C-alpha cells in the first residue's frame, strides 16, 4: 500500500505548482508563501536545538501555544519551528510570534518525497512533534529514516477515521509504529491508537484544556463594551451552514421577551460571511460585521464576526455559548475555550468528535444538550433568568485538569530532548 501511495505522490509532483497556483487564485493559499508548500524555504535554521511542532489548523495551533511559551524561555532551545497547513492558522501564529525570533512558522510542504527530503535536510529538527491527527506517510517514513524522535501529542482518532484506517490496517500499522510515543487526547483515541499499531501510547487527557500563560491584552471596541453593559448577550460560535439561520430565528423569539437582546455569531468558516449576512438580513435582522464594529448601536440584533481568533474576547462578555457543528451531522466543535472562561455550553446532539470532553463538562454541569431551535430558545431563556455569577469552582476544576495535562505532556517532551 505504501508503495502505491509513494508512486501516486511522485506522479503528482509535476502538477504540484499548478495545483497550488490555482488554490492561490481562489484565495485558499497565501499570495507569496504558498511556495513553502513546494519546500522553497527562505528562512535560516541557525545552530543549536530545534524543536518542530506540526499542527494542521487553528485549533491544533492554539492547543500547543502553552508548550511553545514554556519551551521558548528555555535557554537550551535555540529555535522552535511550527508548521501548519491553513491560512487561518498562519495568521494566528503570525499575530502571536511575528516579533519573536526564536519561533518560526512555515507552511508544511506537500507530502511529495523530494519536498519532504529538502524540508527535513534544511531544518534538521532534533524532535518532530505532530499534533492531533496529522498523518503524512512520506514525511513520517523519512523522519524515521533520519532517526529523528517522533511524537504524536493530543492524538485524536475518531471512530470514523479509525474505520477508514482499518480498511488499510497493514499500512496503518506500518505508519503508527513509527511514532516513538503517542499521547492520546482521550480513552477512545488511546484504544484506537493501540489497535492501529502504535507501540507506546499514554493518555493524560486533552491538551486543549491547557491555558496559555501569556494573557490576551487585546480589548474589545469601547462602543461595543458600552452596548454590552445594558443588554442580554449570548454567543453562537463555530457555526456551520444552516446553524446561523437557526440562531437568527432563536434571536427573534428571544427578542419578544428581551427587546435589548444581542446575538454574537462567530462562523467556523469566515469565507461564508456574505451568505450568512444575507440570510440574517432576510429575517429582517439588523446585522453589523465585526470589521465594522464602530457601527454597532442599540438597534443592532446580530454582531457577525468576520475574523479568526477573536472568540475569547466575546466569551468573556457572555455566560451562554452555543457550540456549532452539533445541530448538523458534523460531529461538533471543541467547547474547551468557552468552558474554561466559565460559560455555560449549549450544544446539539452531534458531538461525536469531542465525546469525552462533553461528557466531562456534563459531569461538571457546565454543558447542556439541545435538540432543535425551540430547545435552544428555552435554554437561553433559563440562562437569562439565572442571576448567579460564573461558577468559580467549576472554572478552577477545569483549569486544574488543564494544568495536570500540560505538565505531563511537557515532561514527556523534555525527556525526549534531555532538557
Task: Reconstruct the topology from this structure.
Layout: H1 2-12, H2 16-25, E1 49-54, H3 58-72, E2 77-84, H4 87-97, E3 103-107, H5 113-123, E4 127-131, H6 137-145, E5 150-155, H7 159-166, H8 169-176, E6 181-184, H9 187-195, E7 201-203, H10 222-229, E8 233-239, H11 243-255, E9 262-267, H12 273-282, E10 287-289, E11 302-304, H13 311-315, E12 320-323, H14 336-340, E13 344-347, H15 355-363, E14 367-369, H16 373-385, H17 392-417
Parallel strand pairs: 1-2, 1-4, 2-3, 4-5, 5-6, 6-7, 8-9, 8-12, 9-11, 10-11, 12-13, 13-14
Helix pairs in contact: 3-4, 5-6, 11-16
Report on the architecture of this protein.
There is one protein chain. The chain is of the alpha/beta class. It has two domains: 2-211 and 403-417, Rossmann fold (3-Layer(aba) Sandwich), CATH 3.40.50; 222-398, Glycogen Phosphorylase B (Rossmann fold, 3-Layer(aba) Sandwich), CATH 3.40.50.2000. Helix content is 43%, strand content 16%. It has 17 helices and 14 strands. The protein has helices at 2-12, 16-25, 58-72, 87-97, 113-123, 137-145, 159-166, 169-176, 187-195, 222-229, 243-255, 273-282, 311-315, 336-340, 355-363, 373-385, 392-417; strands spanning 49-54, 77-84, 103-107, 127-131, 150-155, 181-184, 201-203, 233-239, 262-267, 287-289, 302-304, 320-323, 344-347, 367-369. Helix 11 crosses helix 16 (373-385). The longest helix has 26 residues, at 392-417. It is globular, with a radius of gyration of 22 Å. It starts with a helix and ends with a helix. The model has no long low-confidence stretch (mean pLDDT 92).
Amino acid at each position: 500500500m505504501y508503495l502505491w501511495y509513494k508512486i501516486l505522490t511522485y506522479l503528482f509532483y509535476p502538477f504540484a505548482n499548478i495545483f497550488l497556483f490555482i488554490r492561490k487564485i481562489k484565495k485558499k493559499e497565501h499570495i507569496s508563501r504558498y511556495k513553502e508548500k513546494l519546500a522553497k524555504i527562505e528562512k535560516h535554521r541557525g545552530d543549536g536545538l530545534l524543536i518542530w511542532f506540526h499542527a494542521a489548523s487553528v485549533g491544533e495551533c492554539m492547543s500547543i501555544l502553552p508548550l511553545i511559551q514554556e519551551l521558548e524561555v528555555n535557554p537550551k532551545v535555540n529555535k522552535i519551528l511550527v508548521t501548519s497547513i491553513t491560512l487561518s492558522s498562519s495568521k494566528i501564529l503570525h499575530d502571536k510570534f511575528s516579533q519573536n525570533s526564536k519561533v518560526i512558522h512555515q507552511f508544511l510542504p506537500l507530502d511529495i518525497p523530494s519536498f519532504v527530503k529538502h524540508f527535513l535536510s534544511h531544518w534538521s529538527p532534533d524532535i518532530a512533534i505532530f499534533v492531533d491527527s496529522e498523518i503524512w506517510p512520506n514525511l513520517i517514513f523519512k523522519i524515521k529514516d533520519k532517526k529523528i524522535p517522533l511524537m504524536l501529542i493530543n492524538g485524536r482518532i475518531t471512530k470514523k477515521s479509525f474505520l477508514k484506517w482499518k480498511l488499510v490496517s497493514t499500512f496503518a500499522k506500518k505508519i503508527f509504529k513509527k511514532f516513538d510515543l503517542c499521547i492520546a487526547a482521550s480513552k477512545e483515541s488511546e484504544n484506537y491508537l493501540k489497535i492501529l499499531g502504535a507501540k507506546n501510547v499514554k493518555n493524560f487527557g486533552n491538551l486543549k484544556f491547557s491555558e496559555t500563560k501569556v494573557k490576551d491584552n487585546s480589548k474589545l471596541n469601547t462602543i461595543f463594551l458600552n452596548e454590552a453593559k445594558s443588554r442580554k448577550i449570548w454567543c453562537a460560535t463555530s457555526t456551520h451552514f444552516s446553524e446561523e439561520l437557526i440562531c437568527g430565528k432563536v434571536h427573534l423569539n428571544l427578542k419578544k421577551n428581551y427587546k435589548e437582546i444581542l446575538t454574537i455569531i462567530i462562523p467556523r468558516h469566515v469565507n461564508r460571511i456574505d451568505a450568512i449576512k444575507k440570510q440574517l438580513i432576510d429575517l429582517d435582522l439588523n446585522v453589523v460585521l465585526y470589521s465594522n464594529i464602530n457601527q454597532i448601536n442599540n438597534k443592532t440584533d446580530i454582531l457577525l464576526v468576520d475574523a479568526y481568533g477573536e472568540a475569547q474576547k466575546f466569551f468573556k462578555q457572555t455566560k451562554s455559548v452555543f457550540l456549532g457543528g452539533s445541530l448538523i451531522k458534523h460531529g461538533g466543535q471543541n467547547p474547551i475555550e468557552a468552558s474554561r472562561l466559565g460559560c455555560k455550553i449549549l450544544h446539539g446532539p452531534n458531538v461525536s468528535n469531542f465525546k469525552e470532553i462533553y461528557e466531562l463538562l456534563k459531569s461538571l454541569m457546565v454543558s447542556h444538550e439541545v435538540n432543535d431551535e425551540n430547545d435552544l430558545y428555552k435554554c437561553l431563556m433559563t440562562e437569562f433568568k439565572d442571576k448567579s455569577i460564573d461558577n468559580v469552582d467549576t472554572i478552577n476544576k477545569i483549569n486544574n485538569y488543564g494544568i495536570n495535562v500540560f505538565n505531563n505532556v511537557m515532561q514527556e517532551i523534555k525527556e525526549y530532548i534531555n532538557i
